[in-house]
């Protein structure tokens, strides 16, 4: 019981060479090795009986020993079909046969080759040495008058060493191929992961653009619709003008949505950002849209002809846009002050400030509550910072600083 457990532990496959199903190639190789071992056993036995050019070899043992040698050799040849799963057990069995058997030499060398291929070098070297050791006894019990005692031991050692090195070389090559294949699979998996991450980042960016663009447009629509709801008796001209603004805002919202979704369908022609990508120069248009909707907004832009880089201006635009949207949601009718100031080297400061709401009964616009979170993320990605705080009396201030490098 203990011996069986020990043999099972020794025959357990290595982690770097697991047992796999036998392929067609494996069946062909096993068949050839089986035929080789059988032929070797028959040839050695015939040599013992008939000499074949070396008559001094005849009669190196009684006839019953020669037939027993052949029979046990055939048993070891049949056991070769299990050499892939139990090479250590078969190698130890070959040690017992090696004390008196010459015909089992072919099967023993084949088993040692399997050990060298499928087991680590220390294990293979130890089993090879153990299988060579019985030659000391075999060469004494059945001396070979053609080559002598020490020559028999030397040649056995040489052949066993060649088999050990050959099998170890094949094992090293298989490990190298397996390692290269694993690296290729890992590289492919990492590439797929990078593609997935890039897609996720692109989806996040598009979702952020949709939030920034559509929240602004839809808040304008809600503001006009709320005005019509509050004043159902307004003059027809004023109603028509408000309806025209609603129609124009809805059209612009759809256009912005098409441009954002278009990023998913058409790759960028160059390395620049895709549309819609407004910059700091578009703040006047943004403020005019808010004023046309009835909001009170003042805008202060930096003096001088130099404008910040497009990436900085784009981030500043989105921050002002989100600030105006939040003011319309939470402080309808309040005066919103937008100031943008800065210079190359000192950075760009954006400030959106409004007092508490002054319009009583104005409809409350719904919101997801993630606008400021998105702005903070934008500022961090741009290398800047964002601060927002409530003022006494219910007011609110949104302030951000963005780096503006010197050109």
From TrEMBL:
Domain Histidine kinase/HSP90-like ATPase: 315-404
Signal peptide start-end: none
Every Signal transduction histidine kinase subgroup 3 dimerisation and phosphoacceptor domain range: 202-267
Enzyme Commission no: 2.7.13.3
Keywords, comma-separated and alphabetical: ATP-binding, Kinase, Membrane, Nucleotide-binding, Phosphoprotein, Transferase, Transmembrane, Transmembrane helix, Two-component regulatory system
InterPro entries: HATPase_C_sf, HATPase_dom, MFS_trans_sf, Sensor_HK_TwoCompSys, Sig_transdc_His_kin_sub3_dim/P
This protein's record includes keyword Hydrolase: no
SUPFAM superfamilies according to UniProt: ATPase domain of HSP90 chaperone/DNA topoisomerase II/histidine kinase, MFS general substrate transporter
Statement: the UniProt record of this protein carries the keyword 4Fe-4S: no
Catalytic activity: ATP + protein L-histidine = ADP + protein N-phospho-L-histidine
Ranges that cross the membrane: 32-52, 64-82, 88-114, 121-141, 147-169
Protein name: histidine kinase
Species annotation: Catenuloplanes nepalensis
Lineage start: Bacteria, Bacillati, Actinomycetota, Actinomycetes, Micromonosporales
